[in-house]
Every structure is written in structure tokens, then in C-alpha cells.
Amino acid sequence: MQLATCLSVPLWGKTPSRLLHLAERNRALEQALAALSLEEREWLELRFVEGLRPSEIVRVLALELEPNTLSQRIVRIVRRLRARLQGRSELESFRR
After folding, report:
1. Phi, psi of 8 (to 5 degrees)
2. Which residues contact 36 (CB under 8 A, 6 or more apart)?
3. Are residues 81 and 33 in contact, defined by beta-carbon separation less than 8 angstroms?
């Protein structure tokens, strides 16, 4: 998944325990992204990997949305991802 690869943390040059932590974090990110709809992942990829502005995404995908509406939806998607990853992080620290 190109989006997960772009957003994940590089694993080289780290201690073994840090490598394990980062690998778990990258895996959690991939799972959180997989839980999104195909449309949501496409919007995130175009916005954060390809660097398109919401107005460009609306035009490229021929969406029947205003750019501001798409921008707000992208913000909500990112907040959901953060909440999911934060919740997972808190759960993992509780288990330790």
C-alpha cells in the first residue's frame, strides 16, 4: 500500500527494541488505513502522497463536492486515524 509506506517510519539505524516498536506502529498504521473505505484512502493518497490540493482532487476525480467539503472530510478522516492509532497505543502501554 503506497500510502502506508509513505506515512510509515523508516526502520533503519535503530536499536532492536526501537525497531520492534516502529514495526508495530507501522503495522498499526497499515491496519488503520485498511479500515478506511477505498474512496477515503484514495483521497488521502492524492492529498498527502501526490500533494494535490482539495480543489485539484475534486476536479481529477470529478467529485460532486465543494473543495472545502472535501477538505473537511479529509480532516475528519485524519482525526479518525489518529484516534484509532492513539487508542491502540494506549491499549498497548496498558498491557505492558
Report:
1. -75, 165
2. 44, 77, 81
3. yes
- Residue-by-residue DSSP string for 19-88: HHHHHHHHHHHHHHHHTS-HHHHHHHIIIIIS---HHHHHHHHT-SS-HHHHHHHHHHHHHHHHHHHHHH
Q: What percent of the chain has pLDDT over 90?
A: 55
Q: What is the mean pLDDT of the chain?
A: 84
Domains and CATH numbers, the chain: 2-95 (1.10.10.10)
Nearest CA to 51 out of 83, 6, 5, 4 is that of: 6
